[in-house]
C-alpha cells in the first residue's frame, strides 16, 4: 500500500516506522531479521531500506602495485526489501539514489521494483562517495533528486526513456528528503526550500526529514512548507543519541545542531550507560511532543540496533 494511504487510513493517529541498512556483503539476511523482530510489536506499516553507493578501494597486488576497484559494501537493497515484504507482510521502501546509476539502469531497477510489488520509493540524490570531496553524478545519470523524481513520475504516466516501450504505467508513491536545519550544500534555507518544492511539484507525495533534536526545527520546517504551498505529509526522521561520541559525529555527518540542554546533560554523564539513558529520555520527550504536534509517523533511524528504538516505542505507542 502507498505510504500516503497508510497515513490517510490512520485517521490522525501517529504511526511507527523505521529504517535499516541492508546487510554488509557476505553477511546473511538473518541480521536484518534480528533487527526487525523486536520492533514488529509496534506494527510498522512500512520499513525503509537504505541504498549505499559504491566506493573505491585500493587492492595491493603481490608486485606492490595498487589497483583502484569499485566496491559496493551493502549491495542488496532491493533483495532486502523483497525479503522483508515476504517475511513480515509489511511494505518495504527502498531508497533509490542518483549516484552510481545511469538513467537506463535506474529505469530497469524501477521495473524490477514494480514487479516485486513495491509501491513506494524514497528518491534521493545520495551521499558523495567517501573518496570524493563532493557528490559526483554518474555519466548519463541524474544529478539531483528532482531529476529522479521526474523520471519516476514520467514512468507513472507511462513515459519511459525509449519511445518504443509498451508504455504500461507504474504506480509508485514517491517520497523525498527534507532538511529542517537546511541541506549542508545549500547557500540558505530559502534556496533549499525552492528545490524541495520543486521535488513536490514534480510528483513527490511525502517528505521524510533528516534527524533533528529540537522539535522547534521540525515545527518551523512544517510551517515553512505549508506557507510555501508544500502540503504533503512530513514524516520526522529520528535517532536517539546513544554514545558520547555522537555529540561530535552526528553534527559532523548530518550537519545538525544538538541543543545546549541535551549536549550539557550528556557531557555531565559519568558513564556511557548514563549517556544512553539521557539520549533515550530526550527522544521519548521529543516523540511525545511530536505526537501532540500531529506528526503522521515517527520514523526511526535504527542503524541496525533496535534496542533504543524499542524502548522509545514502548513509551510512546
Ligand atoms: P537533492 O534534493 O538533490 O538536494 C541536494 C542539494 O542540491 C541541496 O543542497 C539542494 O538544495 C540542492 N539542489 C537541489 N536541486 C538543485 C538544482 N536543480 N540546482 C541546484 N541545486 C539543487 N544517502 C544515501 O546515499 N543513501 C540513502 O539511502 C540515504 N537515505 C536518506 C534518507 C533520508 C530521510 C535523508 C534525509 C537522507 C538520506 N540520504 C541517503 C542522504 C542524502 O542522499 C544526502 O543528504 C544528499 O546529500 C542529498 O540528497 P537529496 O535527495 O536531499 O538531494
Description of the molecule:
The chain is α/β, with parallel strands linked by helices. The protein has one domain (3-239, 297-305): TIM Barrel. The protein contains 11 helices and 11 strands. The strands form 2 sheets. The protein has a 9-stranded parallel β-sheet with strand order 9-8-7-6-5-2-1-11-10, sandwiched between helices. The protein is globular. The model has no long low-confidence stretch (mean pLDDT 96). Flavin-adenine dinucleotide (FAD) binds at residues 50-51, 53, 95, 97, 124-127, 144-146, 177, 183, 185-186, 191-192, 195, 208, 210, 237.
Topology overview:
Layout: H1 3-9, E1 15-20, H2 30-36, E2 46-49, E3 55-60, E4 66-71, H3 77-88, E5 91-97, H4 103-115, E6 120-124, H5 145-156, E7 173-178, H6 189-201, E8 206-209, H7 215-227, E9 234-235, E10 237-238, H8 246-254, H9 260-267, H10 272-292, E11 297-301, H11 306-316
Parallel strand pairs: 1-2, 1-11, 2-5, 5-6, 6-7, 7-8, 8-9, 10-11
Antiparallel strand pairs: 3-4
Helix pairs in contact: 5-6, 9-10, 10-11
Bound molecules: flavin-adenine dinucleotide (FAD).
Amino acid at each position: 500500500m502507498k505510504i500516503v494511504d497508510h497515513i490517510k487510513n490512520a485517521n490522525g493517529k501517529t504511526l511507527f516506522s523505521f529504517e535499516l541498512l541492508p546487510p554488509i556483503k557476505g553477511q546473511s539476511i538473518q541480521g536484518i531479521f534480528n533487527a526487525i523482530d523486536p520492533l514488529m510489536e509496534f506494527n510498522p506499516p512500512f520499513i525503509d531500506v537504505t541504498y549505499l553507493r559504491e566506493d573505491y578501494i585500493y587492492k595491493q597486488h603481490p608486485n606492490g602495485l595498487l589497483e583502484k576497484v569499485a566496491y559496493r559494501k551493502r549491495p542488496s537493497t532491493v533483495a532486502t526489501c523483497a525479503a522483508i515484504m515476504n517475511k513480515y507482510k509489511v511494505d518495504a521502501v527502498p531508497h533509490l539514489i542518483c549516484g552510481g546509476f545511469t538513467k537506463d539502469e535506474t529505469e530497469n531497477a524501477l521495473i524490477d521494483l514494480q514487479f516485486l510489488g513495491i509501491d513506494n520509493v524514497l528518491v534521493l540524490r545520495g551521499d558523495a562517495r567517501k573518496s570524493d570531496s563532493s557528490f559526483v553524478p554518474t555519466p548519463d545519470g541524474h544529478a539531483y533528486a528532482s531529476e529522479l523524481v521526474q523520471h519516476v513520475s514520467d514512468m507513472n504516466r507511462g513515459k519511459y526513456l525509449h519511445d518504443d516501450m509498451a508504455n504500461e504505467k507504474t504506480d509508485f508513491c514517491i517520497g523525498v528528503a527534507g532538511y529542517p536545519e537546511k541541506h549542508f550544500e545549500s547557500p540558505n534555507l530559502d534556496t533549499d526550500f525552492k528545490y524541495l518544492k520543486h521535488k513536490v511539484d514534480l510528483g513527490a507525495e511525502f517528505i521524510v526529514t533528516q534527524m533533528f533534536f529540537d522539535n522547534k526545527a521540525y515545527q518551523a520546517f512544517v510551517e515553512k512548507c505549508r506557507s510555501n504551498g508544500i502540503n504533503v505529509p512530513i514524516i520526522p526522521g529520528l535517532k536517539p543519541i546513544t554514545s558520547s561520541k555522537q555529540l561530535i559525529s552526528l553534527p559532523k555527518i548530518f550537519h545538525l545542531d544538538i541543543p545546549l540542554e541535551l549536549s550539557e546533560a550528556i557531557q555531565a554523564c559519568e558513564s556511557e550507560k548514563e549517556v544512553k539513558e539521557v539520549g533515550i529520555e530526550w527522544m521519548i520527550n521529543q516523540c511525545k511532543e511530536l505526537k501532540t504536534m500531529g506528526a503522521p509517523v515517527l520514523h526511526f533511524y535504527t542503524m541496525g540496533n533496535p534496542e533504543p528504538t524499542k524502548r522509545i516505542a514502548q513509551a510512546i505507542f
